[in-house]
Amino acid sequence: MLRALRARQTALAPLVLLLPAFTVMLFVVALPLAFSFYTSLTPYRLIRPETIEIFIGARNYVRLWDNPVFWAAFWRTILFLAIALNVELLLGLGIALLINRLTWGQRTLRTIMMFPMMFSPILVGFQFKFIFNDNIGIVNNALQALGLTDRAIPWLVDAQLAMFSIIVAEVWMSTSIFAILLLAGLLAMPRDPIEAARVDGCNSWQVFRHITLPFLMPFIFIAMTIRSLDVARAYDIVHVMTGGGPAGRTELLWTLLARVGYDNARMGEANAMAYVSTLLSIAFTVFFFRKLMAARRYMGGAE
Amino acid sequence: MSRAAKQRLASVGLWLVTFLLMVIMCIPGLWVVLSAFRPNREILARPPVWVPERLTLNNFAKIFGLGEAQVAIPVGSYFMNSLVIALTSTFVALVIGMAGGYAFARFRFRFKNSLFLSLMLFRTVPGIALSLPLFMLWSRLGIIDTQMGLIIVYIALNVPFTIWLIDSFFRQIPMSLSEAAQVDGCTRWQAFWKIEFPLAKGGIAAAGVFAFLTSWNEYALAAQLTRSTDSKTLPVGLMDFTAQFTIDWAGMSAMAVIIIIPALILTFLVQKHLIRGLTFGGVKG
Fold first, then answer.
1. Which domain holds residue B151?
2. Which positions in chain B touch A2 (Cβ < 8 Å)?
3. A155 contacts A145 by C-beta, under 8 angstroms
4. Do residue B235 and residue A29 have CB atoms under 8 angstroms apart?
5. Min Cα–Cα distance to chain B from A285, Å
6. Stated pTM of the model
7. How many CA atoms does the CB half-sphere of B115 hold within 13 Å?
8. Based on the domain organization, do B47 and B80 belong to the same domain?
9. pLDDT digit string (tens) for A81-90?
10. Tell me: the pLDDT tens digits for B80-104?
11. Fold (CATH) for A70-299
């Protein structure tokens, strides 16, 4: 009887159930991306609509290849992601381990910890623009009140400091996600192996390195996969805080393509950049998704 | 001191240290919330005023155009646009996500993993990159600067992650439950609504909150696809406060609080389900 039931679940059912999802994605993402790809092969400018019909092959891409501004933004984006994600992971892991050690009052602290998660990226950007403001920002006010500096530090005007401030904002926004996912992993962890290792004379570092960390790996990959789905929301932060300035020194791929597309109205070139940034995000997600799948098999999950 | 007392003291100490760290982490957010209740004069004061002399609701009255009305920022219509767009897109994404999540959790079919991954990859496309073609297409279709235009985009933005979450919640429900119901004469459709849906309700609510927050907080796409009070949402409206060289910090902070409050309430309501769904679905295949 059961087998008969299972057999009746024809091959058609999942297709019908998934149809709406894929229809929406096709209409809102895949088709526009195809259109975007075509546009990237034209010299399309918003102010001259007829230019969309001129086909120039890969010339936009070739021009990107020779464009130092583009490459600067590209490598800056990679560096930005590398620093931000690693700091977020380490801080998140630290917070998760700390909260996991508490014997009471865990829930309260977990709730407080989630506070930054509710902030819209645009709000986070505005908030840190406010905090790092050289005249009225709390950071400069505090430093001056403590006598650590007597002049106003130009946090968002100096190139290096501006990049630093942006990374601080990004880390503030996303560390809780790592912390909450890793904490869930720690809470799901069986106690026996740790106690056994302690009985055998392992110290805290050895327990962490050889038992806790391997167990946490899949959770780290989940966190990374989820984060990789929208790394580009850093656009909102940079857009508000510096707008890519000073003199393009905090320009990331995302702010650059917005500037070329909307401010300079050179849609063809902007779409070529958009394609590069999309491929970057996809590569990133695929990388962590595959790690996650491998870790899953290792954990002996279902299927 | 006895051993037990020492241990107790150590655990209190650890809690206090952790608590302090968390509070320090929250300060940037709390500072904005505090600024929403301070007069602009005090925010701009030199030397800085650390302890507010009095807290006021004037900033809120101002942005809603009450009292000493002078600012012409239509916060009311932004709020309504945000609400309508976020609620509608969340509802539709949930319906589509329930169908999709059920398919992934309950059926075996070819290319299952690839289909799942491709759904996620649709979500990966950076909003600002996607905004370029959508801006061109939506203008041609005449749905730029309409609530409908943004609702359609947000449905697509939310479907992949909604499917991920709902899939993981359906997986936690043993298949034997719905099979038993079917043996007893239920159709699969009835079994779904009588058995699986009630059991997965918490998780579906969590997915809904997540979708709502994504729509509520989104900026990159909304900034390009909206123009006027017909469809501008709160995050886009926030930029109204920045003129070329001056920023109304107090007004912006007040608006920030208005944006945060719904997010705050919703997240706390479903935090438990949200965490469970994300991690369980990932690890147990």
1. 75-283
2. 179, 183
3. no
4. no
5. 7
6. 0.88
7. 17
8. no
9. 999 999 999 9
10. 999 999 999 999 999 999 999 999 9
11. MetI-like fold (1.10.3720)
